[in-house]
Amino acid sequence: MLTFPISEFHERINQTKRRMADAGVDLLMVTDPANMNYLTGYDAWSFYVHQMLIVIIDDDQPVWIGRDQDANAALYTTWLDEDHIIPYGDHYVQSSVRHPMDFITDLLREKNCDHKTIAVEMDAYYFTAKSYMQLTKGLPNATFKDGTNMVNWVRIIKSDREISYLKQAARISEKAMQVAFDTIEEGVRECDVVAEISHAQISGTEDFGGDYPSIVPLLPTGEKTSASHLTWTDDRFQQGDPVIIELAGCFRRYHSPLARTAVIGRPSEQMEYVSDVVLEGINTTLDSVKPGITCEELESVWRSVIEKSGIKKESRMGYSVGLNYPPDWGEHTASLRPQDRTVLEPNMTFHLIPGIWMENMGVEISESFRVTETGVEILADFPRELMVKPNIRLA
Questions:
Q1: Nearest-5° angle of CA 228, CA 318, CA 20?
Q2: Which of these, 112, 113, 119, 340, is most buried using a 10 Å CB contact count?
Q3: Hey, CA dihedral for 302, 306, 311, 312, is it positive or negative?
């Protein structure tokens, strides 16, 4: 079930170990499921219980530790041998008297790792305060460091195969967006549109199926388009409603997000004006993408466009994207915003989403893109415009 050659996993491990060595770290505890996948291929919906990948700087393979009933998933999906797949018993699961981190600290003492310098992903979604307390309690002689995003920064430049997966995800996002536009009609329920979107995301194309995306389809409607992360209700669409559609195609856990704004009937003058500003900003920004430019320089291109319009946007206008699990498809590394001086390099991938949310309405039009050797490649091929129903250009 491996989705990459073992040689690629070895290179990822080696890059991670170089970062560990530079930081003076002997052992890295990885709890982010995306990073576990990236280093080993592990892929299962088991992150609701405690699991961990331990990268020891002088061991050729990392050690997977998880619930006993998930050990076979590690055998099926990773390149690790059985000696590096170590399960804990079910009596550790959601127990008030013992914790999976107690099992891990016992294991590390057996391996004579209890005096090591240990980095932990302290800001990972699935690493809890209780986990940290139990680790420090069980390993009082270890030195703990913050290893948040250590693996994420290795992930930021994609391999050719990763790029191919992102492009397949983009084909799915195109299909799902078309389904959304086709399904949105006066009188139709929001939940029914999302059901069709989800079907398109999972069924994928005739050539390949889709995976579950890390974020559900977002579908704020009417005045609720002024809010950026609303999902859906069972309300019915009405004539004149604007609708923000934000979704992603997902293939082998790689995401290609895409957002568009649609209007049922004639858009208001305000909606048309804001959409025109957003489109000018996106087009100008994408034309400026190239290796060597920094994230903040790219954001300043966007800002120079919208400042002329009198519209302000305080939030970031994009972020690095790729491999992930719920609740996010972003990589938590580079952001397109002021003071982020990350230099763009070939095969970095971003979601450019300069959404504008005002008091009574909002507009989202986004693109996922790859930095190439000379410029930019847009991942999805879908009309970049305010989508109006009926619209013969999308028929």
A1: 120
A2: 119
A3: positive
Cβ–Cβ < 8 Å for 292, 343 = yes
* Ramachandran category for residue 112: left, alpha or beta (phi over 0 → left; psi -120 to 50 → alpha): left
pLDDT at 392 over 80: no
Give this prediction's pTM.
0.96
Taking the C-alpha atoms of residue 146 and residue 29, their distance in angstroms, rounded to an integer, is 10
- How far is Cα 78 from Cα 6, in angstroms, rounded to an integer? 9
Question: Is the confidence at residue 224, as pLDDT, over 60?
Answer: yes
C-beta separation of 73 from 46 below 8 A: yes
- Judge contact between 50 and 65, C-beta under 8 A: no
The answer to whether 362 and 228 have CB atoms below 8 angstroms apart is: yes
Rounded Cα–Cα distance for residues 236 and 305 (Å): 36
Local structure of 82: helix, strand or coil? helix
- From the list 103, 65, 110, 105, the residue with the least C-alpha distance to 83 is 65
Contacts of 66 (CB under 8 A, 6+ apart): 46, 49, 50, 51, 52, 74, 87, 88
Cα–Cα distance, 337 to 306 (Å, whole number): 14
Output the CA torsion sign for 296, 302, 306, 311.
Answer: negative
Query: Pairing state of beta strands 242-251 and 254-264?
Result: antiparallel
d(CA 65, CA 51): 6
Beta bridge partners, 52, equal 65
What SS3 class is residue 92? helix
- How confident is the model over 317-343, as a mean pLDDT? 97
Nearest residue to 233 (alpha-carbon basis) of 250, 216, 221, 242? 221
What single-letter DSSP state applies at residue 164?
Answer: H
Residue linked to tokens 């994420």: 152
Q: How confident is the model at residue 314 (pLDDT cuts 50, 70, 90)?
A: confident
Q: Which residues contact 298 (CB under 8 A, 6 or more apart)?
A: 285, 288, 289, 318, 336, 344
Element housing 304 (H / E)? helix 295-307
What are the structure tokens assigned to 295, written together?
Answer: 């994230």
